[in-house]
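Weekly puzzle thread! Below is a chain. First person to post its structure in token form gets bragging rights.
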Amino acid sequence: MISFLRIERFVFGLSEKFNWIAAASVAFIMLLTVADVFMRFFGRPIPGTYELVGFVGSMIISFALPYTSVQKGHIAVEFIMQKLPWMARMIVNAVNALISMILFGVIAWQCMLYGLNLKAAGEVSLTLQMKTYPFVYGVAFGCAMLSLVLLIEFLRQLRGAEIE
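Winning reply:
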């Protein structure tokens, strides 16, 4: 039990760090976009802004997902769930966590395979000629982290912990 709590705290702390990376990335693309718009007034737009915003945007989403799941920031149909008995709520929550964990595990695995293919092919972006596979690995890492968070939630549900 104590080791499970340590693992849970570690994973939740790591998801918070992922969220801080996502927040810093939002600030980065905001500053980049503002700088690009400003430089357009002087006829000198920043090349590759569109590419960078797209790549970093994928990282923002995948790195924010684990923390959002920890904080229960996702959309839930609470008015239906509250009408269910306690045991039914736990079963629904456990099945939901299990299916979601499997889905995001498969997404992480497929992103890793895709990243390996991109790396082997030497795929680069059109404008900046920047390697694309690190961003795909980032999405895989974020989805794997979300799978880990969902595994912990699944185990909590099996132990009888009610979702807040």
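Puzzle host: Confirmed. Bonus trivia for everyone else. Residues 2-40 form the longest helix (39 residues).
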